[in-house]
Amino acid sequence: MRIFKIFNKTEDYVREHLSHHPLWYSFFGGVVVVLFWRGVWDTADILRTKNHFLNWFFYGPNQVVFSTLLLLLMGLMVSTFVGEKIIISGLRHEKKVEDRTEEIVEEEVITLKHIRDEVRALKAEIAENKVGAAGKTEKTKK
User: pLDDT confidence of 140, banded at 50, 70, 90?
Assistant: First the structure.
């Protein structure tokens, strides 16, 4: 489990720094994704030569049918090819996150912090009222 914590912290660090350079982030990310799928493809080609069933299973048209059915079954078809954020932003008539300016994002962060502070103040006020109400109840019992 410790290795997962180390990997998670490393991932957070890398994402944080790469997010400041979206063009490089997307370029390197794209290259790595292509290399991953190239490895999957080569592995499928190697397995295809092993026996008749794998040859039939890894045949291109069969793979399109199987993978489409599995993606639909797992609920990943739309999110894989379109993306949930794009669909949601389209339904809300919003710009894509990539098209928003940094200024708008910063304004949203400030607004969210303000809302968080207000909620915390309300929680404290409610807790204070509960303590005050409990004290009054004890006095009335005496």
Answer: low
Encoded tokens for 9: 């912290």
d(CA 48, CA 58): 6
Taking the CA atoms of the chain, what radius of gyration do you get in angstroms? Answer: 27
121: amino acid identity, one letter: A
pTM of the model: 0.49
User: For 95, phi and psi rounded to 5 degrees?
Assistant: -75, 160
| CB of 32 closer than 8 Å to CB of 40 | no
CA separation for the pair 55, 119 (Å, rounded):
61
Which amino acid is it at 92?
Answer: R
Phi-psi category of 8—alpha, beta or left, where left has phi over 0 and alpha has psi -120 to 50?
A: alpha
